[in-house]
Amino acid sequence: MKMSPMIESLVLHFGEMGSRWGFNRTVGQMLALIVLSESPLNADQMREALNVSRGNVSMGLKELVSWRLILLRHIPGDRKEYYCAAGSIWDMANTVFEERRKREIDPTLSLLRNNIMDDTSKEAPELFAQQRVSEIHDLLETITQWSSELQRLSPEKLNTLMRLGVGVSKVLDISDKFKRTKTD
Question: Which positions are tagged coiled coil (predicted)?
Fold first, then answer.
């Protein structure tokens, strides 16, 4: 499978970004290749396009399936397994966010909850640490609740909300300035 220069550039970039998103370079490249492909791809096509081993492609496909970012498709009359993106770009962004929350935020919240409930020590360093742990927990809980609400929005409403974000920020800045001048 031959990639155009534009697609090749994007695939390479996705590979570099993969480690920042929570998976390795090859998996990032495979995701880009699948997302940018109009029709489903099989493992041989991906191996050829990316110049990687069958084993690497197989492991990458398993990881992308576990992240729920790709779907297995069968083409009538063809015994090979084909893969396509699991929904729209918005759907995949939500899925990545949800998977990262499960893998990163939820275990941290569990650890913080356990430490908050274990308030046996009354020494000053422990009390200060307990207060900090409680603050971190409350922040992560708020972010988690807020993000859950955002994930329930349709892509259109979410897009509108993001566009409003700049305006809301400006209104809040004006409100702060007004409050300061009132109290001065």
Answer: none
Domain end residue (candidates: 85, 101, 131)? 85
Q: Do 38 and 61 fall into the same domain?
A: yes
Query: Which residue range(s) make up the domain with 59?
Result: 5-85
CATH number of the domain bearing residue 56: 1.10.10.10
> Which of 37, 88, 32, 87 has its CA nearest to residue 60?
32
Per-residue pLDDT tens for 74-132?
A: 999 999 999 999 999 988 988 888 888 898 899 999 999 888 877 666 677 778 888 89
> Token pair of 58, please?
């197989």
Do 65 and 150 belong together in one domain?
no
Considering the chain, what percentage of its residues have pLDDT values greater than 90? 54
pTM of the predicted protein model = 0.74
